[in-house]
Write a structure and sequence with these properties.
This protein has 249 residues and is α+β, with helices and mostly antiparallel strands. It has 8 helices and 8 strands.
Amino acid sequence: MSTSMIENPKVVSQEEWLAAREKLLANEKQLTRQRDALAAERRRMPWLAVEKQYEFEGPKGKVSLLDLFEGRRQLIVYRAFFEPGVFGWPDHACRGCSLGADQVSHLSHLNARDTTLVFASRAPQPDIERLKARMDWKMPWYTITSDFDIDFGVDQWHGHNIFIRNGDNIYRTYFINNRGDEAMGSLWSYLDMTALGRQEKWEDSPEGYPQTEPYKWWNWHDEYASSASTDPRWVKVVDSAKVTLNLND
């Protein structure tokens, strides 16, 4: 379509533009509060015990679903389509799954919230490693060798399954697919789908859920350390900024 055929909005003064922006901002803030409320409701979803044993193949051999947690409390498993019969094979994964993989944020921030993200497909490990190297993808990516995809609703279509563990006991806490998958990729979109959420004090979470001060846990991705305390210089920056910040606005 030629750009000359596009009916552009009217051009206005700066005062009119600011007024229009403020009007739209009110609706956007309402949507933000609704999204927070949905996340709070999600954190109160019942859990489903995972009693069946599932096996995967990783770079170092056979692993279980519990192994995929990498010792963390929460696990997000994205079922990506990369296998014989899928468009793009063997050079590429599905275009949609590949676009989603390109959106994945740096995993260190997610790991800092005790959460692991992995991808899973039915392609053999040598093909997965070749694809990751070609596309410069860093996420852990496992081969499905059991009925995991069938049992968790991702044998025909992509989707994110979210789990939590209590010791060696694993529970399914949420599932998101179809258009819900479009927004996934940022740290916040992942955490908002988990049972524990962003784990910040402003959130409406059940009693006893882990929560810390917002912003203060943030770090450069190459400097996270479980034993490191918050840099007091960063605390000062955050505390001075809180005067103008309102997380519930």
